């Protein structure tokens, strides 16, 4: 099951006190069919997990896994999560809290249920700039940069210019694989 997660807070200076959690997940093996979960959560004034922490992650994942199982008659044996918008400063605390909630969801569905989990963070807000050699133009769309000179020695990560735009959007992708459910 492929899962995409984002949290939206509204514009800066907004009086809006809630954030919108949007989650989409594939429910078939191809994948061509998707389900969604949309939640509102109060914006914490100060949170130990950070601004981007999804409070209802356990309930969201239980619902998505149940919908997958309803269609396929078995739960997914692997869950790949694409998570948007976690800053470097919040990465560890949010990742640990959300991973714990996902594992709790699986165990609550069945004590024997232990899918393989992958958690992939996709950041668009970073300060890395790439230019073409001998030019001040942006790198071409569909460029992937995984050089040891710019990636982390401790993580599997890469930078990508995924598509053409007037201003090429470069993403920093951090991939964390879990082949065991602890």
Explained architecture:
- The chain has helices at residues 57-72, 91-109; strands spanning 2-8, 18-26, 34-42, 78-84, 116-123, 143-145, 156-161, 170-178.
- The two termini are 19 Å apart.
- It is of the alpha+beta class and 182 residues long.
- It is globular.
- The chain has two helices and eight strands; from the N terminus they run βββαβαββββ.
End-to-end Cα distance: 19 Å
Strand/helix succession: EEEHEHEEEE
Write down the CATH class: Alpha Beta
Q: Summarize the amount of helix as a percent range.
A: 10-25%
User: Please, how many domains?
Assistant: 1
What CATH architecture do you see? 2-Layer Sandwich
The CATH superfamily turns out to be Ribonuclease H-like superfamily/Ribonuclease H
**What is the molecular shape?**
globular
* Number of helical elements: 2
* CATH fold label: Nucleotidyltransferase, domain 5
Task: Give Rg in angstroms.
Answer: 18 Å
Give average pLDDT, whole number: 80
Into which percentage range does the β-strand content fall? 25-35%
Largest beta sheet: strand ordering: 3-2-1-4-5-8-7-6
How many strands, what sense, and barrel or not for the largest sheet?
8 strands, mixed
Structural class: alpha+beta
Strands, total number: 8
- Unreliable parts: none
């Amino acid at each position: 099951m492929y899962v995409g997660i984002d949290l939206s807070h509204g514009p800066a200076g907004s009086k809006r006190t809630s954030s919108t959690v949007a989650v989409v997940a594939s429910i078939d093996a191809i994948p061509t069919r998707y389900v969604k979960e949309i939640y509102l959560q109060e914006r914490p004034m100060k949170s130990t997990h950070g601004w981007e922490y999804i409070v209802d992650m356990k309930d969201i994942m239980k619902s998505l896994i149940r919908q997958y199982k309803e269609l396929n008659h078995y739960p997914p044996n692997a869950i790949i999560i694409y998570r948007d918008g976690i800053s470097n400063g919040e990465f560890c605390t949010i990742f640990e809290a959300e991973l714990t909630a996902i594992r709790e969801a699986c165990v609550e569905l069945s004590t024997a249920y232990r899918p393989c989990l992958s958690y992939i963070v996709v950041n668009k807000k970073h300060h890395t700039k790439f230019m073409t050699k001998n030019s001040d133009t942006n790198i071409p769309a569909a460029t992937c940069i995984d050089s040891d000179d710019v990636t982390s020695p401790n993580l599997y990560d890469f930078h990508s210019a995924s598509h053409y735009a007037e201003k090429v959007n470069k993403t920093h992708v951090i991939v964390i694989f879990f082949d065991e459910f602890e």
